[in-house]
């Protein structure tokens, strides 16, 4: 398979090299880091580590992901993998996400932090609580069988194009999962390990950030009922 990797990054200078270096390059056509308004030297470190660096000045997780997708449109990619730049996921576990797709078991794979092994302090209480609420509502309204909204995920490129992704913020992950269910795209979860991120969290590390992300996620859960 021809695999591309998209890493949205905002001020990840302390971790981005580790993420890039730990990805198994023999499996990947290109690693794209989307620098999303960083004020540190994230972009330079990513470039020196061997990644293609794109710039997206509109701040937002979804903005960065959409920028990366646009880059891969003409590169004949079979699968895209999305991965955060904070080194909380283990990049080497990309093989766990790719295997079911390679075996044609499904088209979309979520790396579940809930099912996997987590280091102490890696998935905070309010994160677990928010995950539980969102996945329970997705099960109730859409029959979805998810345990996590984890950012570490792989999806066939053609399937991703069918979703017509639009969220520009932290609703990106839940939008993808809801639309995959509604479009009847085969999906599954695989357990992935999870450790405390390097550096300060821009979302879960603050009450304001957590509440904002939670509101956006719930907005997508309820909005999608009427689409």
- Extended strand count: 7
For the largest beta-sheet, the strand count, sense and barrel status come to: 7 strands, mixed
First and last CA, distance: 33 Å
Report Rg: 16 Å
Supply the key terms.
Spore Coat Polysaccharide Biosynthesis Protein SpsA, Chain A; alpha/beta; 8 helices; 39% helix; 227 residues; 7-stranded mixed beta sheet; globular
Summarize the structure.
With 227 residues, this protein is an alpha/beta fold. It has helices at residues 16-22, 42-48, 61-72, 94-102, 125-142, 157-163, 172-182, 207-223; strands spanning 3-9, 30-35, 52-55, 79-82, 108-112, 153-156, 187-191.
Could you explain the architecture of this structure?
- Helix 5 (125-142) packs parallel to helix 8.
- The protein has helices spanning 16-22, 42-48, 61-72, 94-102, 125-142, 157-163, 172-182, 207-223; strands spanning 3-9, 30-35, 52-55, 79-82, 108-112, 153-156, 187-191.
- The longest helix has 18 residues, at 125-142.
- The protein has a seven-stranded mixed β-sheet, sandwiched between helices.
- It has a single domain (3-226), classed as Spore Coat Polysaccharide Biosynthesis Protein SpsA, Chain A (Alpha-Beta Complex).
- It has 227 residues and is an alpha/beta fold.
- The mean pLDDT is 91.
- The chain is 39% helix and 15% strand.
- It has eight helices and seven strands; from the N terminus they run βαβαβαβαβαβααβα.
């Amino acid at each position: 398979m021809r695999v591309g990797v998209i890493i949205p990054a905002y001020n990840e200078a302390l971790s981005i090299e580790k993420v890039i270096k730990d990805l198994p390059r023999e499996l990947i056509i290109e690693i794209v880091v989307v620098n999303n308004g960083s004020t540190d030297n994230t972009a330079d470190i990513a470039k020196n580590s061997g990644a293609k660096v794109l710039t997206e000045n509109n701040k937002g997780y979804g903005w960065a992901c959409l920028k990366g997708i646009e880059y891969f449109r003409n590169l004949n990619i079979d699968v895209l993998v999305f991965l955060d730049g904070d080194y909380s996921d283990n990049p080497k576990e990309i093989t766990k996400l790719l295997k079911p797709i390679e075996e044609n078991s499904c088209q979309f794979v979520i790396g579940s932090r809930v099912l996997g092994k987590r280091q102490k302090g890696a998935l905070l209480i309010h994160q677990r609580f928010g995950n539980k609420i969102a996945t329970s509502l997705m099960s109730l309204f859409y029959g979805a069988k998810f345990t996590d909204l984890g950012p570490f995920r792989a999806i066939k490129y053609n399937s991703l194009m069918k979703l017509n992704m639009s969220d520009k913020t932290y609703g990106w992950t839940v939008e993808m999962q809801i639309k995959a269910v509604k479009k009847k795209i085969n999906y599954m979860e695989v357990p992935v390990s999870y450790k405390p991120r390097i550096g300060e969290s821009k979302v879960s590390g603050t009450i304001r950030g957590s509440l904002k992300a939670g509101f956006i996620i719930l907005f997508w859960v309820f909005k999608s009922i009427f689409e």
